[in-house]
Amino acid sequence: MLPLNPSDIDIQKKSSFQLVHYINQFLLIPETNLEQNDFYLDCTDELFRRGIDCSAMGNPEVVKKVPAYRYFLHRNKLYQERVYGEYIWILLHFKDGNQWEFAVRVVYVDEPYVSIAGIQTISPILLVIRHPHQQTQIDATGMKHYLMAGFNDEGKFTSLTMLHNDTEAPYAVLSQARSAIINLEGWDMIQWDYYEIWEKGMENRGYTPPDPPVPKS
């Protein structure tokens, strides 16, 4: 939650993800006090000072308090949720220098717990972690033959987790990733390097994208 009296918070000691989290919390509160308004502007100023690309915010003093106007941070750039909708196109870079663009279904994670239990899809899922905590508990009960590639705040590939639960018992994993791509087994994820938001794919906005082809090994 956004603090009611944030003057005692040293924002320079907070991570950029924490600052974006505060900004998103501010956008969810219909009426804020003067101190909270100043705190919001201080957070945006601090992001600018750190070299974060905040062009998605436009003029930070002109605020629309709508949930869809919340942001997410990826590779030192802010993106606004409303611009992308249910799907995001990403440009994936492989360790050998090859690139591959494709669409992913996006799930925004604003709490340190998310459930993807029972999801059965051949389309990849992108978890965008927006909460400031170090770990996320992911409920994957009922999922079979899926892999989850984890990425750090720079979009660099850092981990690979198998999601396979062939019993009726609850099943969850803990992840320190700042974002994750979940897909059926069969992709050579270990060769992934990093990804970026592929804004060239915006012409596909408003349409359900086809399933991406499996890359040739």
Tell me about this structure.
15% of the residues lie in helices and 31% in strands. With 217 residues, it is an alpha+beta fold. The protein has two domains: 6-82, no CATH class; 85-202, Jelly Rolls. The strands form three sheets. It has a seven-stranded mixed sheet, with no helix packed on it. The chain has a three-stranded mixed sheet with strand order 5-7-10, with no helix packed on it. The model is unreliable at 204-217 (pLDDT under 50).
CATH superfamily of the largest domain: Protein of unknown function DUF192
CATH topology of the largest domain: Jelly Rolls
Task: Give the distance, in angstroms, between the N- and C-terminal Cα atoms.
Answer: 46 Å
CATH second-level architecture of the largest domain: Sandwich
User: How would you spell out the order of helices and strands?
Assistant: HHEEHEEEEEEEEEE
**Residue ranges: pLDDT <50 for 5 or more in a row?**
204-217
Number of extended strands: 12
Q: Specify the structural class.
A: alpha+beta
Main beta sheet: strand number and arrangement? 7 strands, mixed
Share of helical residues: 10-25%
The shape is globular
CATH class of the largest domain: Mainly Beta
The side-by-side strand order for the widest beta sheet comes to 9-8-11-6-4-3-12
Radius of gyration: 18 Å
How many domains make up the 3D coordinates?
2
Task: Tell me what portion of residues adopts beta-strand conformation.
Answer: 25-35%
What is the number of helical segments per DSSP (H or I, 4+ residues)? 3
Mean pLDDT equals 85
